[in-house]
Structure formats: C-alpha cells, structure tokens
Amino acid sequence: MALTGLEIFKQLPRTNCKDCGYPTCLAFAMALATGKVGLDLCPHISDTARDVLDSASAPPIALVKIGAGEKQVVLGNETVLFRHDKRFENACAIAVPVSDALSADEIKDRVGAINRLVFDRVGQTHSVNMVLVDFCSGSPERFAEAAKIVAGNTEYPLILKSEDPLPLEKALAVVAANKPLLWGANASNYEAMAGLAQKFETPLVVQGTGLDELAATVEKVTAKGYKQLLIDSGAREISQVLADQTQIRRLALKKRRSFGYPTIVDVTIDDPVQAVLEAAVYISKYAGIVVINSVDPADMLPLITLRLNIYTDPQRPIAVESKVYEVLTPGPDSPVFITTNFSLTYFCVAGDVEASKTPAYILPVDTDGVSVLTGWAADKFTPEKIADMLNNSGIADMVSHRKVIIPGGVAVLGGRLQEVSGWEVLVGPYESSGIPAFIKKHWGS
User: Distance between CA 295 and CA 97 in Å, rounded?
Assistant: First the structure.
C-alpha cells in the first residue's frame, strides 16, 4: 500500500535543508506521495529509510528494460487498472518474429521489412519495437547465426525464443551485449534458464500452463534472486488470454508479487485480419509485449495508432516542438504565422497554409500543448511569450519584413504584442480554414 505524505515525512531527515529543491521536508514528502518527484532528490536520507520507502513505493508491476541504446524497450512501472485513474506508464511493445530456419538472405530481407515499419503521426515517429528470433531449425548453431544476422541488421532489441537452453546460450555468446530478452523458462527448465539470465544479465520470460503454475515458477525463479522478468500465462485462445491478462493485472495491483511483472503474448493465428484484431485486444488489455507475425504496414499502422491512443497520457496533450517551421520553402518575403504547439492546432494551420500554395513560416509558441483559446485563457499564450519567440527563434533573420499574423480568436493580443515586439501585427482568420483567402486578400504576391 502506498504511504501517505506524513508517513513518508517520518522517514526523512527532517532538517529542511532545501537540497531537494523544496522549502521543507514535509513539502518534499507530499510531492513524493503524489508521485511528482523521486526519492533520489534527497541526498541525506538514510539507507534504512530508503529501503522502507523504496519497498513501499515500488509500483505493483516491476520495471523491466530490454536491449541497449536508443531503441531500448522499457516496460512495467504500471500502477492502475484503468488509464483514467492516472495513466499508463510504458507503452506495449510490438515484436515481429524471424525464424532461424530461413536462409541468411531471407533473414536480412525480413529484418529490412521490419525496419521499414515506421510511421509518422501528428509529427511523431512510431514503429514496431522488437525482433523475435524463433528456434525452429533444430540447430543451436543455426539459431546463433540467425541471432547474429538479425542483431547486425537492426537496432531493435531482440527476443530469443527457445525452451532449450543450449540454443540460447550459443546465441548469447554472440549477442549478449544487445541485452536480449530470453523467452522459454518453464516449470521444467527454470533453473537452467534463470542461470543463463543471471550469467548474461538479460531479462527472462517465465511461462506456465495456467496462472497457478506460472505463479509457482515465478516464485522459484525469484527465490534465486533474479527479478528482471516477464510472464506468459501460456494461453493462446483469445478469450483465455484476455481473462488471464485481466486477472494478472488485478492480482498485481493487489501486491501479489508473483504476478507483478509485464506480460508477453504471442498472436499465433495466420489470418491477418483476425491476428490484428487479437493483437488489438491484447494491446488494450495490459500486454507488455505483443508478438505478431506480419511485416505488412497495413497490419501494423492500426495497431500502432491504437497503442498511441491508449498510452498517450490523458493529462498531457500531444505537442510539437516550439521552433520555426517552414512550409513550401519560404523566403524573406514570406508571411509568418503564430499559433500554439498543440499538435492538432499546428497541423491544421500547416495544412491550410500548404493549401494556400503560399510559402510561409509557422511559429508554434510553447503553451504546454494546449490550443489557442485555452492557452490564452490560461495565460500561456501571451504577447510576452509570442514576442520572446519572435526575438529568439531566429525568424527575424529569415524574413525582410516585420509583420506577423496571429489567430483571429485572440485579436485582443494584437496591440500589446505590437508594443512589446516591435512587429506589425495582422489579425488572421478565426479558423485556420480561412488562411488561403486571408493570404490572397492581405498578403502581396
């Protein structure tokens, strides 16, 4: 159970040293209780108190990291059953399998196709996250060679799947630096699998044939001191997988530590439409990793879009970077439009500027990702902030004029903006759809 602010306060030094950035230890304790800050901000806390607070504040689902480098996959740290209770922390990873029975060229071609599963949505780049190397050939040497080829042709973390420890050991001899995920520990081989995971310091999937066996096997593995785990209930029928995923999350939130790990689910069906539907169910209901056997962008785009919708923090709007954007190769005589960095607002403006066929600059002011009227009402879209961007973004060096166009909905800002910035302010249309007509009427060709 999470500690209250007063319970946390009792464990702190209570010196009010302010080294954490808060005026008092009580204020810091309250921030800790609400999850706004981490315990590491306090440099004076005792080891005993740290152990107590770490144990009490540990999320029900453990944090697990797979891979190394920029493409590292981070899973777990989840604390709620429903997103609106707080938020989901780390998005479900999507993995695509590669069989070691393929030839070297076929493996390279498939990995290349996986690498191309990249999509742009609201200014952000989204993709699949992992490549699974499946032990199908029966040859440990061939499995190790396949893992080496895959690792040499992608930056994505690997999943090495085999219930036989020997192929995994041979593969780890060549790709251990990539920190792959090992998938195959069960009630009969968990000792050898846990030993491999500990030796190479890689995360491990523990699987069972039902939740009771899964819990028992997890307890045996964790008793050996290894806790970088994912879990697989062994179910493959969609109804049973859904039931298991929901039950695992509920039990984890009740602090049943045997279930307090991210889950992995394999979509085994060949029908692409049904496979996408099943994967969508598992992404929606708590899977940490979904494995789906497809390299078709038409299959992956809806799953990635669904994932984006589910795992976007509802308390933080999607925002674009606050900088100068160029539309249609503008020059020194091109118009300059001001808007906010709420992604939907920015892309509406950019689309309508492009529709006008007039090259232009767009400056989205940082409003913490809220729209024009919301930003104005919250005092985040002010003449001073707009003037600061005009003066510090470099736009003054890009254009020969000093005219700036603001949204019609905040025409009231015009006078003050002109005063603090020195730019001539033109009040644009209320809706971005009026930009083409506005440019035609008010901006010389």
Answer: 9
| Token code pair at residue 108 | 């390279």
- Token pair 């939740």 is at which residue? 211
Exposure string of 336-362, with b = 16+ CB inside 10 Å and e = fewer, is bbbbbbbbebbebbbebbeebebbbbb
Instruction: Look at residues 414, 437, 411 and name the one whose alpha carbon lies nearest to residue 353.
Output: 437
Instruction: Report in angstroms the alpha-carbon separations of 167 from 132, 377, 434.
Output: 14, 62, 63
How far from chain centre, in Å, is Cα 396? 36
Q: How far is CA 76 from CA 30, 62, 306, in A?
A: 24, 5, 19
Tokens representing 352 are 């309508």
Closest CA to 335 of 346, 324, 345: 324
Three-class DSSP category at 190? helix
Structure tokens at 58: 């540990």
Q: Which residue, 154, 124, 201, 184, is CA-closest to 193? A: 184
The vertex-415 CA angle with 412 and 419, nearest 5°, equals 145
In angstroms, how far is CA 316 from the centroid of its own chain? 13
In 3D space, the residue among 274, 151, 142 whose CA is nearest the CA of residue 162 turns out to be 142
Distance CA 191, CA 46 (A): 36
pLDDT in tens, 156-165: 999 999 999 9
User: Residue 242 phi/psi, 5° resolution?
Assistant: -60, -45
Distance CA 417, CA 270 (A): 60
**Tens digits of residue pLDDT in 331-379:** 999 999 999 999 889 999 999 999 999 999 999 999 988 899 999 999 9
Q: How far apart are CA 440 and CA 358, in angstroms?
A: 9
Quote the DSSP letter at residue 423: P
- Domains of the chain, start order: 5-57 (1.10.15.40), 64-311 (3.20.20.20), 325-442 (3.40.50.11600)
- Residue labelled with tokens 């005589």: 333
pTM of the model: 0.76
* Closest C-alpha to 90, from 62, 55, 54: 62
Asked if 381 and 393 touch (Cβ cutoff 8 Å), the reply is no
**Cβ-count burial of 416 within 10 angstroms (0-12 exposed, 13-18 middle, 19+ buried)?**
middle
- Output the CA angle 180-199-261, nearest 5 degrees: 55
Residue 227 φ/ψ, nearest 5 degrees = -130, 10
Residue 235: count other Cβ atoms within 10 Å of its Cβ: 19
